[in-house]
Amino acid sequence: MRRRGIALFAAFAVALAACSSGGGAATSAPSAASAAPSAAAPSESASASAAGPLKPIRLQLQWFPQAQFAGYFAAKDQGFYKDEGLDVTILPGAVEIVPATVVAGGQAEFGISWVPRMLAPRESGADPVVIGQVFQRSPTLQVSFKDKNITSPEQLKGKKVGSWGFGNESELYAGLVKAGLDPANPDDVTIVQQQFDMVAFVAGEIDAAQAMIYNEYAQVLETKNPATGKLFTPDDLNVISWQEYGTSMLQDAIFASEAWLAQSGNEDTAVKFLKASFKGWMYCRDNPEPCVDIVLKSDAKLPKGHQTWQLNEVNGIIWPAPNGIGITDEAAFNRTVEVATAGKILTKPVEGKAWRNDLAEKALAQLSDMDTKGTAWQKANVTLTEGGK
Questions:
Q1: 266-286 and 358-365 helices cross at what angle (nearest 10)?
Q2: Are 111 and 128 within 8 A, CB to CB?
Q3: Measured between alpha carbons, how far is 299 from 99 in angstroms, rounded to an integer?
């Protein structure tokens, strides 16, 4: 019966094709107010731009503009980068764009990337290094309908399991291996190449689909269940969280080239960039509705409701940040390398130290009067609507 609802879902997916993933429209309840001063407060560096010309800086995203990157768009829109004397150009990503390659080639000073995809070019001589770990937790899920009876990775045996590939499969593969299943053995599991949407999943062609909590998961909840004529709900789904299962990887880190950082003055520039970016994310935590509007006017292709859901979930990946936003947890980084190596994104352990906290710590020290941990933040209630309107 699900197949009768595919035409509507496919039409929605067309709108998502240029953006990779999508979700639904929503109204959100106000997020919990922070006890510390808001990120919208005037910057201490407000006079920085008046001291001379702004320094041009390029930031390479790993995907198209959407609320996944809201903090950077907010930092630009609210003048936080300008306050630090920076003129930041935000470069959109795409499937074929590898931010680490762009940064290594000198086409951008900073990049945003899943950590494994950033590390892989190091094996070919590139020198990217994480300087700010914004996402603290993994949002990657494996989603199935309740009638498939898949509640654990072990129950993926004999199933058709969706994977995007392009380096996004390692959490899944590591989870399968941990569950005693061989991703390369069709007698254990059949890996299905999944598009960056949930059309095949809703059509019943995939038993368990890969999804981000902030994106593809919402796509399903924005689609009508043909059996009921109403939107699918979380009660219709089983979800495997790779974060909870222990095979998660760090995602969406800010990185730069070691060689670029070694040049005179560039570490100071990096601290300024991190400071302004962190303020952007705090602004989006404390002011979600105007932040969504900023994302929408930054050439985001997905509708407002979906961006509202996405920002709410992305905030949940960032906050709370126990050691302050941007600080890399060594254990999480080491687990990421282990998972990426097992998944053959990396062929060997990382040589040298591919992350550093000193620049983020300096940025946080300049934000000591602000809430950089978000301990009191609470997720809002977001109501999804059909097609993400």
A1: 60
A2: yes
A3: 19
Neighbouring C-beta atoms of residue 63, cutoff 10 Å? 21
Q: Is the preceding peptide bond at 320 cis, omega within 30 degrees of 0?
A: yes
Mean pLDDT within 41-62: 72
Could you read off the pLDDT of 263-302 as tens digits, one per residue? 999 999 999 999 999 999 999 999 999 999 999 999 998 8
Which residue shows structure tokens 């983020």?
Answer: 360
User: What is the Cα–Cα distance from 19 to 12, expressed in whole angstroms?
Assistant: 12
Task: Please give the structure tokens belonging to residue 132.
Answer: 């700010």
Q: Which ranges constitute the DSSP H helices of the chain? A: 6-16, 70-77, 80-83, 99-104, 115-119, 170-178, 199-202, 216-221, 242-245, 258-262, 266-286, 288-296, 304-318, 330-342, 358-365
**Do 60 and 93 form a contact (C-beta atoms < 8 A)?**
yes
Judging by beta carbons within 10 Å of its beta carbon (0-12, 13-18, 19+), is residue 66 exposed, middle or buried?
A: buried
pLDDT of amino acid 17: 36
pLDDT mean over 210-217: 96
Residue 4: HSE in the Cβ half-sphere, 13 Å Cα cutoff: 6
Q: Which two tokens stand for residue 298?
A: 């930054």
Angle, helices 266-286 vs 70-77, to 10°: value is 100
Residue 329, C-beta contacts closer than 8 angstroms, at least 6 positions apart: 133, 136, 323
pTM: 0.87
Three-state SS at 386? helix
Both structure tokens of 74 = 């907010």
* Cα dihedral 129→176→322→383 (10° resolution): 110
Non-local (6+) Cβ contacts of 298 within 8 A are 65, 73, 77, 90
CA-closest candidate to residue 243, choices 338, 344, 168, 332: 332
DSSP labels, 334-356: HHHHHHHHHTTSSSSPPPS--B-
Per-residue confidence (pLDDT) for residue 328, from 0 to 100: 98
